[in-house]
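Dear Dr. H.,

I hope your travels went smoothly. While you were away I took the liberty of generating a structure for the chain from your last submission, since the lab meeting agenda had it listed for discussion. I wanted you to have the full record in hand beforehand rather than looking at slides cold. The sequence, exactly as received, is reproduced here:
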Amino acid sequence: MQADTSQPLCEIDDLRIGFRGHDGELIAAVRGLSLVLHRGERLGIVGESGSGKSLTGRALLGLLPPAAQYQAKTMKFDGQDLLAMSARKRRQLCGRQMGMILQDPKYSLNPVMTVAQQMREAFGLHGPKLGRREMREKIVAALAAVHIRDPERVADTYPHELSGGMGQRVMIAMMVSSGPRLLVADEPTSALDVLVSMQVLGTLDEMIEKHDTGLIFISHDLPLVMSFCDRVVVMYAGRVVETCAARDLIHAQHPYTRGLLAANPPLVDPPDELPVLERDAAWLVQPTGTAT
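The corresponding predicted structure, in token form, is as follows:
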């Protein structure tokens, strides 16, 4: 399915996020980030830990920690100004039109609640009121939609009884069953082995195609991003240093991106030593463009 480029789904211009240190000084975590996401598009965001990838996704959904200080010239979702929106209306968007899949289901799911109890709570907050029987049918249908075997049984299990791949499917079922327009997936396969990762990505891909959802896919896995996404944004120290089509990432020119690629050694004839990334202070001040 081709992404609809006639109208951006999300627009961010000059996003800045910072935190106060113990000495009161503001420490910048995201520095002047700008990007555009279109409907049905898969936008990958890559970079080292601490580069601002997750904070960018959380800022869109209004899920930044209380200590965060942020500002932006523009932050829009489907033409709506998120900066001018009330906190109540912002919360209403989350779960209905905007969703986020977190990194590890072990820490994202409540360990003392069954899958059905957690899904019932999520569906009750963001959907029409349903009777007990209708809600149960909706939960089982959502689990079946992400290819969970025996969804009736899984609905009554606790998170510790699920494998990593099963738990991630539960998270996807909770987030995509309402057909969100925007989905932020923060390292959704980092805790999974290769085979299960591909199964989860297949499920995620199927849900995106079904609902024409715009996806922000946050990952450290560059080969995975190249194969799964349409475009890639490379972040360094809170800034966008390079943007390109995913298929062209292997030919990226920025030295930071080249360093990240070199840190993924080939399986055939790997080097004796991995190259060390040599950082340049100029990367923090060089002008960046909008990720369009």
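Two observations you may find useful: The radius of gyration is 20 Å. Residues 1-5 have pLDDT under 50 and may be disordered.

With kind regards,
E. W.
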